[in-house]
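#struct-help
A.M.: can someone run this one for me? Single chain, 82 residues.
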Amino acid sequence: MVAGQTPIDLLLDERRAQYEVRKDKDVEINGTVIGKDTEDGKKVIRRERIRMWQTRWKTSIKNRVTFTFFRSIQERFQAKWV
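D.P.: on it. Structure tokens below:
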């Protein structure tokens, strides 16, 4: 989280979803169905990936010291001093 690197499983899921949408297939990610008719499908997929990562970050029992500094993933990305 501190390094700002997306967990590999979430990144792979995002890339798979982008591929499916490019091939005009509907894809479900985090309970949201994204299809060829979805405007800005790439943005929707990214938003869902960040939402999944945030849920994982909030519920994890590891890295609680880091969590005190960065409670949200977005907060970490906006911090230029890290």
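A.M.: thanks! The longest strand covers residues 27-29.
D.P.: also worth noting: The helical segments are 8-22, 41-59, 64-69, 73-78.
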